[in-house]
Amino acid sequence: MFRALLISLCLVVLPTNSYAIGVCKGGNYVARSATCIYDGDTGWQGGTKWRTLGVDTPEIDNGAACSRERKLGKAARDRLIALMNGGYEVVWGGKTDKYGRYLVDVILSNGQNASEILKQEGLAQNWPNSGNIWCN
User: Fold this and answer.
1) What distances in angstroms separate CA 122 from CA 97, 101, 111, one per listed residue?
2) N or C: more exposed end of the chain, with fewer CB within 10 A?
3) Cα distance between residue 82 and residue 104, in whole Å
C-alpha cells in the first residue's frame, strides 16, 4: 500500500540493474519480486508490473492477430531485453493504465528512452494508435 501511495505521489526512479534481465517465465511475479520482460512494452520490476508510456508493440501470444505480429512481438521483446541489459532505470510516472500497470519510461544507461529506439527500429508505434499496423 505504501509503495503504491509513494508511486502515485511522486516520481520514483529505480536504479540501474546489476544482473541480466530476461523473459518473464513461471508466474508468481509479485511473490517472487520478479524483474523480467513480458513483451516489448510490458514488464515487471521487483514484482511490480509496468507498461511503457506512449508506445504500443506487437502482441506475442493469443493477442496477436497474425503470425507476422507474433514474430515482430518476439523481436520487440528480445530487443527491449538487449537494450535493458546494457543498464537502465525505470522511471515511474505515478499513473496506472486501465489494467493496473504502472506507466513508466525505460531510460537506458546512455540516456536514451528504450521506447524511442523500438519505434525507430519499426518494433513499436505511438500509443494511442489507429489500429494494428503489424498485420495490414
Assistant:
1) 24, 24, 20
2) N
3) 18
- pLDDT of 8 > 70? The answer is no
Looking at residue 31, its amino acid is A
Residue-wise pLDDT tens digits, 61-112: 888 999 999 999 999 999 999 999 999 999 998 999 999 999 999 999 999 9
Fold category of 2-126 in CATH = OB fold (Dihydrolipoamide Acetyltransferase, E2P) (2.40.50)
pTM score = 0.84
Helices (H), the chain: 2-9, 67-84, 114-120
Task: Compute the C-alpha angle 28/29/31, nearest 5°.
Answer: 65
